[in-house]
Amino acid sequence: MDRLAHVKQRDDGTWDRHPLEAHLLSVSSIAGGFAAVFTSAEWGRLAGLWHDLGKYQPEFQEYIRSASGFDAHIETAPGRVKHAIAGAIHAAETLGPYGRLLAYLIAGHHAGLPDWHPGEARGAALSQELKDEVTTLAKSKSGGALPEILDPGIALPKPPIHETLEIHFWLRMLFSSLVDADFLDTEEFMGDGKTGLRGNYATISDLRTVYDRHMAEKFAIADTHVKHLRADIRDTCLTHAADAPGLFSLTVPTGGGKTLASLGFALHHAERHGLKRIIYVIPYTSIIEQTADVFRGVFKGIEPAPVIEHHSNLEVENETPKSRLACENWDAPVVVTTNVQFFESLYAAKPSRCRKLHNIAESIVILDEAQLLPPEHLKPILDALRQLVDRYRVTVVLSTATQPALGKTRRDPFGRTVLEGLGAARELAPDPARLYRELERVTVNLPKSPDDRRTWDDVAAELAQCEQVLCIVNRRDDAEELWRKLPKGAIHLSARMCGAHRAEVIADIRHRLAAGEPIRVASTQLVEAGVDLDFPVVYRAMAGLDSIAQAAGRCNREGNLPEKGRVVVFNPPKPSPSGLLLKAEQAAQRVLAGSSGEPLTPLNYARYFDHFYGDVNSHDKEGVMDLLTRDAAQGEIQFRTAAEKFRLIPDQGQRPVFVRWGAGAELIEKLKMKGPNRELMRRLQRHTVTLYDYQWKKLVASGDLEMHEDFIIQKSETLYHSALGLLPQVPDYEPASLMA
Prior knowledge:
With 740 residues, the chain is an alpha/beta fold. Helices cover 44% and strands 14% of the residues. The chain has 31 helices and 23 strands. 50% of the residues are buried.
């Protein structure tokens, strides 16, 4: 009797069968090919060959013939037959220490990389499962597991790492290779059209040609000083494309054209060195669409579109067949993502989040606004970047106007290393100090002292006297309060608005600025990094020096004013709440108090980050590296607990909410009717707003939000304000019960 891996019902009621041996051999081949990129092909092949060994169990074969075989594949649901652990036990029994490493991958290919010891995270410990589930292997062998599957004669070479501290990262890259191979082979069998949507992208060489032509046409005339400097920056970046892969910096003042210059470097560098893709990592979801749109403008007309966005963690908590196939694997040549998605994936345990990791190898990673990497997680972040550069042939570019000196190793007063830096980076920009002098387009007015605080009424009154002005504050509540005090017609911007809404408002702001119309904007810091706005006057609530510099970059951006633009820094009614925001504010105040002349200089930025990083209590506040490396020499790693602890957003009590703004209503109805799929999830990313747990739970209880499977959906029409976005509290007018 043929052993089956999956079955699929046809429209006529008959069934297609996916032979188990064919699935194992295919996954083995695909995973081996993925892992070959980092010289681990044999490891990938063996993991693929044994990952579904437990499906030989008679119980599994009986179940798959009586139910949907694809549902049976997901063993975490009640009633499913446990099968992933069988191959893990076989690996551990036959290969000793190397087999134990393979066991993590095989045991976790559905439920996620496990902990070795019982830990804080949910899920069984691998050490215990290897002892308790031995009958699954015995049943698999008696169920007909072929000798050539059990003993394929693959000799495992030594792991291609230099020290045991690197084992956890290498295993996660192998895990990615296995998971993606399993997804892809299963997807091809299911035959629902998704396989045909993958691949067939334009080559890097073709994209480089299109980029060069676009830049030549768009910037043929450099008729201002700023445009001349941007052209000089791009040209200098391209001259470095032939440099060997590794660590680079791109230090350019705001408004200097870093985005397109870095894209040009990446395309030429990738073509020269045979690298596969460009991953552009951005701090805020609020600007990801703008950056992706810039890239799409460069590659307009190329099909399939070579640029994908991936920024919201929309993977559901409880896996389903549809959710598995909706996950991304970053197979496009240009990926635009966020710090949260990129770095949390590098330390993730869930298959859906780890799936893309092997595609980071042999790529170019551009960290936009690198100064915004969270200092309390810098140790694991820098360790990951170091390994990507050293072991996986990745070029990393630290792109920012305010370089945070990530290459510097920091020590305590006793000389002990507290944060190992990345080492020296090669600069892509031409003479950054000269660029700062030549791109100086504003004057900065500072408060007299930290005690010189302003009321929102005072700030609003000053803004009302300006025809065109942007005011950036530190909190969403502050943005709303200030907006309510401004004259009618003022604009509000914050992350309470979904991405599609923000994009429309930002487009309107640009139009009104270009038309010379009066416009006053109250915004959170989401406009600071990469949003191309050009105001004659910008107000900024006191914050870190890097934030003040970013705010100044929204003032006289094109240098078209007859005189310098005006930036006014003020102390809001209350200081920032305790934590990193307050530390950044205090570090800036110390630097500015001891500075004379122009406050926004590279020297002041270096001083600021020395103060700021020095004030941080820990650069690995959750002890993630200890969980992953302490007992790695014995093969004992706490993958799942480390993954749950490594969160760049401190408060984990948050969830995305799908909102009905614009096309969101139609997309929500499709989700409710058909469930998640890859394209729908991509489109819904533009219609999400994040709320804290206490907020969304209260709104669910009131009926203003509803739960649909694992997603939270806006129900009440009154909950989304046309100017303010998703209201975080139950509306005190027209409650949802009246709208049903």
